[in-house]
Amino acid sequence: EEQDRLLRHQPDQPQNPKVLRIAIIGAPNAGKSTLSNQLLGRKVFPVSQKVHTTRCKARGVVTYEDTQLIILDTPGLTSPFKAKRHKLDEAMLTDPWDSMKHADLVLVLVDVSDHWTRNCLSKEVLKCLSRFPQIPSVLVLNKVDLLKKKFILLELITELTEGIVNGKKLEVRSAFKHNSSSSAKSPLQITQAFPPENRAHEPRCLQETDQAQEGSSLDSNGDMRASESSLVTEEAQGPKRCGPRDLKNMKGWPCFQEIFMLAALRGEEVDTLKRYLLMQAKPGPWEFHSGVLTSQSPQEICDNIIREKILEYLPLEVPYGVIQVTEMWEEGPSGELLIMQNLLVPRKSHMMMLIGKGGKVISRIAQEAGQDLMNVFLCDVHLKLKVEVKS
């Protein structure tokens, strides 16, 4: 009722409100929902190792002083063939495009730890960017903490941007000294040399430095230490504005305005990205009351978190066929939330897998989902799950 009231309430905006609508797009499992949760400061979007955890677009809301960020967490961009294979709704194909129509800025998330997909943007992502070239876009390289050889980031940036950022050409300069005695295990921190507000007056560059600022250390079996490794922008030939392009031979997008590098699961550098987003906000009316964290109803949050756990613990395609039916949603005598949900599966074999030996799997799902729901709703939650074969 409280969430319903806040969503229906007129936004309590200040005198000169600012707003920014952000679409986060990328391949399935790139970490879009994890990044959304980090920006919000609380877990409201489902996250799992399996693809297509997010089934529809949902909005998260960050309100800070006079500024409101509206985060459009979207399903991973996928092809009709893959949508059919995973029995996905039509919305899975249309929602990312719908989100782009309403966005003021688009974050393109790439999982750099996935060596199968990291060297180029997917055709679906490129189609999306090409169809909406007027929307400013930012490249976000995620999971950089999982990358052992950090110098690979230089190659990835060049490929994913086609060597152009903010209308300027990237020049890659690297000089490595072999040092067999060096352990070179300290992590790289990749920062931008000048904050966004100073970029009109300073040459823009992306430079790798370690925390001690003594020259970068690269984790590559201890045999290389970087004396210099940087990306510097020079004026590119040609227009800064991008129009629809022939995508057949494209691997990257030459119209990104900025590049950020994150370890979203651990929250590293997310605050830097958040500050940048707040600075990009333009004058405009707020969409939500400042007390709203997400446009989802509590029931939708509950369904998503339970489905996240089912995806984690069931093999292969099995979890995609589970139908969730909430049979009870009540407030208990001490203010606790009492939830009972029925999980309908197509086959008896699926039911046995979901229950597990001695009921261990379903008990674990209920326990972990209940804990997550307590963290979201900030109250005690008693969750019961039943499993049935759908008739």
UniProtKB/TrEMBL annotation:
| Stored InterPro entries | G_ERA_dom, GTP-bd, GTPase_Era-like, KH_dom-like_a/b, KH_dom_type_2, P-loop_NTPase, Small_GTP-bd
Name the Gene3D superfamilies for this protein: 3.30.300.20, P-loop containing nucleotide triphosphate hydrolases (3.40.50.300)
Query: What does the similarity note say?
Result: Belongs to the TRAFAC class TrmE-Era-EngA-EngB-Septin-like GTPase superfamily. Era GTPase family.
Q: Which residues form the Era-type G domain?
A: 18-284
GO BP, sorted A to Z? ribosomal small subunit assembly
Q: What is its main location?
A: mitochondrion
Q: What is this protein called?
A: GTPase Era, mitochondrial
Annotated spans, G2? 52-56
Annotated region described as Disordered, given as residue ranges: 209-245
> Membrane topology per the record?
Peripheral membrane protein
Signal peptide feature range:
none
One Pfam short name: MMR_HSR1
Q: GO molecular function terms here?
A: GTP binding; ribosomal small subunit binding; rRNA binding
Q: Where in the cell is it found?
A: Mitochondrion inner membrane; Mitochondrion matrix
Positions of the UniProt region annotated as G1? 26-33
Record's keyword terms, sorted: GTP-binding, Membrane, Mitochondrion, Mitochondrion inner membrane, Nucleotide-binding, Ribosome biogenesis, RNA-binding, rRNA-binding, Transit peptide
